[in-house]
Amino acid sequence: MKNIKYILILFLAVSFFSCDDDDIVQLNNSEYTPATNVEGFGTTLAISKATKTETIQVSYTPASYGVDIVVTDILQFSTTSDFSNPVNFDIDASENTFTFTVGAINELLTETLVLPVGEEAMVYARVMTSSLNGVDTQYSAVVNFSTTPYLDILFAEKTFYLFGDGVGRIAQNNKLKFIKVNSEPDDSWTIVWMEATGSFKLCSDTNYKGVIGRIGDAVGGEYTLGTNLGTDEDRGIDIPVPGTSGYYTVGVDMKNNKLLIEPANIYICGPTIGDVWPVASVVEANKFQLDTENKKMYLTKELQAGELRLHVTHPYISAADWWHAEFIFLDGKIEYRADGGDQDRFSINAGEQTIVLDFINQTGKIE
To answer: Do domains 8-147 and 161-263 have the same CATH topology?
Structure first.
């Protein structure tokens, strides 16, 4: 942010008049000039994890309102040239320049603009200048450049994340976080949409040492995980997806250093099905079905009025302790019990209901 000091005499001499339609103030009948000469991106902006701490400097010729007033300059980005959905880059301008790291812009590209990693994309940028309330905002001419965002995992202690082309790379920057199993500190799980082909790995390292994969082939469907220590061979290789597109539950057993993938098994239980609880409720009639075309899970069933209770089953989770992997959706957003206390709930009316779950967007609804 750049602050230009008020010059009192000029400010007092400024005359204001408003446009009838939009109350935009014109300062002293002056001519406005937006920022120009935005430079620093080039035609191609090369970024990589190896250069994430290096700085990028974008310079520009500042806008003018014809008088000396306080202004704020913001760098905006968009994936379209018309800036129909622009995003602001949270950095301050100083001496007519924006200075930021490669890592900061990569985070904006992947997290805010949601660009896929490893794929070249065209990005558009401009400088937005604003001033006093009611004074028209100015925009520089749009510049564009191509760039290829990279995968950069943010690690957290004893927490796992999925990433890789087999899970659609939607896991970039921790989109696919594993969920703690309540009362079982060594176990975690997540439901993820897996493609028909590809692979994935896990990451968990506060010291940014790398990612972990599998050691050897699966035995009874169970993989032995690598470690974050030693050579690349110790860390393991990519874990292949099962080979059929769909939702899968991935469980991690850290006590035994194991990982197990199985088709997602989600069940309803409790008051809405006549106070039937696991393990008796874990039957086909109470199981969510896969809608492959729309990438959703659904259950259509005649239900009683009462609190909605949902849970996941997996070999690493005790069937009797179903609440260790309980979840619900509130205001349309899926909420997991994880290692927390009893969740908030909501009740549904009696009658035939269709419950729809979308684990890509983490939403749920009743139709």
So the answer is: yes
CATH numeric code, 8-147? 2.60.40.10
**13 neighbors 28 (Cβ within 8 angstroms):** yes
As its CATH architecture, domain 265-366 has Sandwich (2.60)
354 burial type by CB count under 10 A (0-12 exposed, 13-18 middle, 19+ buried): exposed
Cα 58–147–39 angle (5° rounding)? 20
Dihedral (CA of 276, 277, 282, 285) sign: positive
The answer to whether the predicted template modeling score (pTM) of the entire model surpasses 0.90 is no
The class of domain 161-263 in CATH terms is: mainly beta
**pLDDT classification of 146: cutoffs 50, 70, 90:** very high
Q: Among 123, 178, 174, 176, which residue's Cα sits nearest to residue 148? A: 123
Tens digits of residue pLDDT in 179-232: 999 999 889 999 999 999 999 988 765 343 457 889 999 999 999 988 765 566
